[in-house]
């Protein structure tokens, strides 16, 4: 059984708060406090609202990248889809499909790591766009 909070990653107290998720509401996410419980519920709602749109944007940009790579397009804008993918990851860091993938570091730290990866992708795309010619 988990001993840390799904949201902040801190150790659970004596009476952890339980968030039920999933289609049948049988998955349990444990939180250390009422504040983390409320933040986790808010994150789950945000995740439900924006996951599909972020996946669609990323899929379109990956398709554009494959087109550019496959056709060996040599234009100044060929790395712009990479920058858009990085922006999407920075705005909607919802790359994990299951909430238990957030357990190791907690939701807050995991989102920071994914956003950091998004910033690195943005920087790489800009550098390749500016200096790639």
What do you see in this structure?
This protein is 56% helix and 8% strand. The protein contains three helices and two strands, in the order ββααα. It has helices spanning 34-70, 80-91, 107-131; strands spanning 17-21, 27-31. Strands 1-2 form a two-stranded antiparallel ribbon. α1 packs antiparallel against α2 and α2 (80-91) runs antiparallel to α3. The protein is elongated. The mean pLDDT is 86.
Order of H and E elements: EEHHH
- DSSP summary: helix tally: 3
How large, in whole angstroms, is the Cα Rg?
18 Å
Judged by helices, strands and strand pairing, the structural class is: mainly alpha
State the strand order across the main sheet. 1-2
Give the number of DSSP strands. 2
Share of helical residues: 55-70%
């Amino acid at each position: 059984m988990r001993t840390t909070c799904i949201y902040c990653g801190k150790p659970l107290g004596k009476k952890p708060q339980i968030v039920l998720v999933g289609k049948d509401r049988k998955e349990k996410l444990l939180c250390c406090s009422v504040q983390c419980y409320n933040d986790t519920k808010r994150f789950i709602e945000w995740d439900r609202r924006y996951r599909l749109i972020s996946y669609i944007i990323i899929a379109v940009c990956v398709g554009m990248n494959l087109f550019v790579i496959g056709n060996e397009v040599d234009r100044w804008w060929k790395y712009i889809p990479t920058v858009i993918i990085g922006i999407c990851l920075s705005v909607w860091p919802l790359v994990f499909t299951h909430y238990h993938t957030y357990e190791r570091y907690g939701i807050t730290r995991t989102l920071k790591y994914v956003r950091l990866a998004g910033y690195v992708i943005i920087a790489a795309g800009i550098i390749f766009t500016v200096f790639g010619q």
